[in-house]
Amino acid sequence: MSEAYWRWPESSWLREGRDWRDASGVAAGIDVGTTSTQAAIFCDGELHGYANIHTGPDFRAAAERAMALAAGGSGLKTENMQRIAATGFGARNAVCATKFLDEVQCHGRGARFMYGPEATTVADLGGQTTKCVRLYDWDRVRDFVMSDKCATGMGRSVEMMADMLQVPITEMGARSLDVEKDPEPVSTTCYSFANPETIGLLRTGFKEAPYSGNEVLAAYLFAVAWRILGSIGKLYDLDAGDVKVHGSLAFTGGLAKNAGITRRLERALGTTALSSVHDPQLAGAIGAALLA
Amino acid sequence: MVTAGVDAGFESVKVVVLEDGKVLSRALGTSGGLERKKAVLAVWDEALKAAGIPASSVARTVATGQGKYDADFADGCVTEPIADGRAASFVFPEAESVVDIGADQARVVPLKGDGVLQTALSQKCSSGIGAFIRHMAGRLEIGLDGLGALAPDACGGKTVNDGCIVFAELDALELLNQNVPRKEVAGALINAMAVRLNSVIQDKVVPPRDGAVLFGGITKNAALVEALKARSGINFIVPEHAEYGCALGAALIAADEGGAAPKQ
Q1: Domain B1-80+245-264 - what CATH class?
Q2: Which chain B residues have a beta carbon less than 8 Å from that of A60?
Q3: Maximum CA pair distance of chain B?
Q4: pLDDT category of residue A267 using cuts at 50, 70 and 90
Q5: Together in a domain, A128 and A98
Q6: ipTM exceeding cut-off 0.90 for this assembly
Q7: Same domain for A69 and A158?
Q8: Residues of B with CB below 8 A from A128's CB?
């Protein structure tokens, strides 16, 4: 396989016409994940710049590169920052950090900033873990659910699947939605079951009606969405009419960019997710910067 | 008589063109993901071109592999263990067992006379090992060649979970997080995969110490083959072009009279 279908585009943003030297306080947050690393910089409580990159095999280098990219060549160095907080799986590799924070708290706080005060249900769909957080109407975590072992590595498994099916990761979602009716999902237990099963759907002649390419994608992403739905469901008593999830839902993390997953979740929960102008993967880093 | 075998696998498509027991050409290409049908045709054309013959000169074509039905042009199909068995006894007549480890599946096929009576397949938790190894080679940014060239003791005492690839990857990431050199992480992964594969090999039909042939894409990874030999105590015979094992078997069966089931 010559092309890297899994490789999603990195992103960075810098507020224009604003010099960090004019600010009285600079704070930064850095979220070193298993799959992606983000850095966010705040000047006087205002978002100044951010970057979102692939982590790769060297966690320490990724942390440094994300921070440099977020500063955007403005000459801002970590020495110029008063407070730096790190979070995520590889937080200890952010050597510049002065503080280490809990991921659930960071994502909750970051999502509030990005999606507005109504965001009280935050589903972080990351490379390694899926974290679903329920917040009070103020910035405090009421309850949270982390993916357990067999639902782990969801983001990475989608990357792996993009390569196996040879579909660019950014196109998977839209293609999976281009089906008349959702087929039954593949195994919803574990991705090492789901991935070979998805490939198995391509065995024409095995099923009565062979799946089209888009239907295979639909069956796979449906299974991913199903597992996430289970986590969100644990935060609410949906059967008893706990409708606090309506209008309060924010998706963060890499899989939030996959419409094939988010649309299916919205459909199942009967609500529309909030949207943000910022890259949804940034929630952890922004939250860390705000809590620094 | 010219015959051909097509092995449409999980990750790659292999074609062997055979004339009276002599290989005319071989071709290997990607399985094309969702576009496997097209990919099969492309590799097929490549093999014919390499052999320098038109498709009409091929008397019979037999397909195998999990995408065997994607080879529309084939005259018949055989299951993978049958193809493996046929090829193993062809390249090594004394073979008593054949082990084929590909991107998706690992198979153990004991041979008795001409027939295949039994097979052992990898179970859910050890499926997709070949694909996982490729994924990890990319993730560690050392490439498949780098992974295959690792020394037997590359792991430096590090270990990862050997029961499940999901846990194995998580352990590997934790090692990276501790800034363990990536060669050691890769070594630990190779050892874990050898343990995992060995559990399939020792499961139901244990191959003899000598006289077991190893086929499949895994043979490209020297480090893993060595680790597997050490772990299982089996002296695998790795023939040349071992990744074409199944395709060769299919081509041989195409030459056998009434060798393959007609296409459904």
Answers
A1: alpha beta
A2: 179
A3: 60
A4: very high
A5: no
A6: no
A7: no
A8: 170, 173
